[in-house]
Amino acid sequence: MTRLRMNALSAVFVFAFGVLATNSWAGDVKGKVTAQGMRSAEHIAVYLDSIPGKSFPPPAEHVVMDQTHLAFVPPVLVVLQGTTVDFKNQDTVGHNVYWPAISHNRKLAHNMGTWPQGLSKPFTFNDVGDVPLLCNVHTEMSGYIFVVPTPYFSTTDKEGNFTIKNVPPGQYTIKTGSESAKPAAQSVTVGSGSVNVNLTVTK
Length: 203
Prior knowledge:
By secondary structure, the chain is mostly beta strands. 11% of the residues lie in helices and 47% in strands. The protein has a single domain, classed as Immunoglobulin-like.
C-alpha cells in the first residue's frame, strides 16, 4: 500500500471517528413546560440561548410557513438566525402577511404584500427575536416565528413536553418563547446523556 493511500485512509478514519465521538458525547435536553393561567402548554418555543464565541451557519434549505384554512401552519415556528422562510399560500383567497415588529422593535416591521393560492414568498430572518405574524386581509389569523441564535431548539406538544437533540456537553441557558406567556429562563448543564428540565411559564 502506498504512503499516499495510507494517509488518505488515515484521514478518513480520523474524520469518521470524530463524527462518531461528537455524536456519542452529545446529549439530549428533555423536559416539560407547565403553563399557568393559560389554556394549553402547546406550541411554546424552547431553545438554548447564544453561546459565547460560537456562531452557527444557517441552513441552506428553506423552512416553510404555510397558510391554509385561514391559519398559519405551524402556528409557532422556531428557526435559526439567518434562516430563509418560504411563506406559502394554499388557500383559495389571497393573504397579506406582515409583522409589526421583531422583539418590539418597530423599525424591523415588514409587509410581505398579498399573493394568491399556489405561490410563496421568501424572507430571510437575520434578526434574533419574536416575530408576530398577522394578515391584513384576515384579522383572525395570527402566528409566531421565533428567531433564535443556536440550532438547539424545539416546541412543546399538547402536554408541554419537548426534546432538544444532540447538544454538545456544556453549560447553557434554556429559554422559552410564547405568544401568550412571559418568557422563562434557567441554566442547564448538558453531559453525554439526557438531562431533564422543568420550566414554568405564566401568562
